[in-house]
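Write out this protein's structure.
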Amino acid sequence: MPDIPATNDNMDAPRWGLQRNITPCFGARLVQEGNRLHYLADRASISGQFSDADLRHLDQAFPLLLKQLELMLVSGELNPCHQHCVTLYVKGLTCDADSLGSHGYIYIAIYPTPATTA
C-alpha cells in the first residue's frame, strides 16, 4: 500500500473515507475510473493507533481489497450512481466501502474486525 498517512488525532484535520465511530480506522476516498480504483495518499487518513501487526495486515491486504472492490464495480454490486455499502473481511480487518452516489469516488473505512462474544 502506498504511503500510509501518519496517525491524526487532530479533530480539525480532514478525515477521509466513510465515517465510522471505530478506532483505529483507516479511511480513504478512492478515485474511480471506469472499473479501476486509484488510491491517493493525500485523500486518506488514520484515526487512532493501529498495532504493528494490524498495520502489516493492512499493508498486505490493501491490494487485495482494491481488486475485490474493482470486481464489485464490474459485477454492479458497487455502483457509482447509487449508495450501497459493502463489507469485506480479510486478515483480521474489516473494510466497508460505498460510492455514496458520488459518480466517481469510492469511500472506504478499514478497521480491525471486532472480536465476537459468545
